[in-house]
């Protein structure tokens, strides 16, 4: 009983968590190993984390839509 919103939710959630974790790990790496050109590394880290947060917030919307579709189908089957 899969719908497109559920698939979008799953994909965006996984990708969002990976981008946030990758941004934080890259931040840790750049702070411990690279002392020069910190501005470029900071921008890359913030961009990765920001895109990850954006995807997670979009996935929350898709989860709500998926749940609403699921409830609507259950109501139609019960009547």
Structure description:
The structure is a single chain. This protein is mainly alpha-helical and 79 residues long. It has one domain (4-78). The chain is 90% helix and 0% strand. The protein is built from two helices and no strands. It has helices at residues 4-33, 38-78. α1 (4-33) runs antiparallel to α2. The longest helix has 41 residues, at 38-78. The mean pLDDT is 88.
Which helices and strands, and how do they pair?
Layout: H1 4-33, H2 38-78
Helix pairs in contact: 1-2
Q: Uncertain runs with pLDDT below 50, 5 residues or more?
A: none
Count the DSSP helices.
Answer: 2
Amount of beta strand: under 5%
In percent, how helical is the residue content?
A: over 70%
The main pleated sheet reads as:
none
- One letter per element, helices H and strands E, the order comes to HH
Keywords:
single chain, mainly alpha, 79 residues, 2 helices
Summed up, what is this model?
By secondary structure, this protein is an all-alpha fold. It is built from 2 helices and no strands.
């Amino acid at each position: 009983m899969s719908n497109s919103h559920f698939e979008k939710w799953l994909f965006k959630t996984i990708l969002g968590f990976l981008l946030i974790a990758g941004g934080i790990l890259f931040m840790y790496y750049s702070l411990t190993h690279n002392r020069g050109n910190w501005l470029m590394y900071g921008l890359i880290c913030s961009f990765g984390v920001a895109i990850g947060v954006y995807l997670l917030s979009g996935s929350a919307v898709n989860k709500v839509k998926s749940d609403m579709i699921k409830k609507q189908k259950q109501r139609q089957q019960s009547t």
